[in-house]
Sequence to fold (188 residues):
Amino acid sequence: MPDTPQYLEESVAAFLAALAAPLPAPAAGSAAALAGALAAGLAEKSARLSTGHWPRAAGAADRCEALRERLGPLASEDAKAYTVTLTALRAAGGDAALRAAALGLAADTPLAIAEAAAEVSALAADLAGHGNPTLRSDAQTAALLAEASTRAAAALVEANLVDARDDRIARAQSAAAEAAAARARSLA
Fold:
């Protein structure tokens, strides 16, 4: 199996071409991760330019930076996990237990994306309400992008898990609800 490209090292055009290619990966999880990373970067910018407006801005900037650095690499991690999952599914054949285990592998990275992006959405909402007023639309855009990232990743978690009682589904749904609430708060 060839190594998964490190999407952060590619141009935007190259990533978009890879995303559009008729290959299994990169796909939705990678797109969700990069959307979350974009949101974190935009929120980080808003925070760094809000230190004179909000006492918590510096801490928010540092947390956004950490989330950006976490979310970006998840694009490649998701593509790799999806490729491994497809291989495991082929090997599982008709064995339902093996198929469920293989699909479970594909849920972990989207869950990490959903939880990190939900945090970005909350930080962006705080920045929209307390940060530099001239950057309010930047913070709102970050909250919107982060919500989209969270909801997309949560949908992947749900699609990949066979057992509806799996706690990862509840965690993904909770992250999506948190991101939606933060987005609404950012626009208020």
Q: What stands out?
A: The chain has six helices and no strands. The first helix runs from residue 12 to 20.
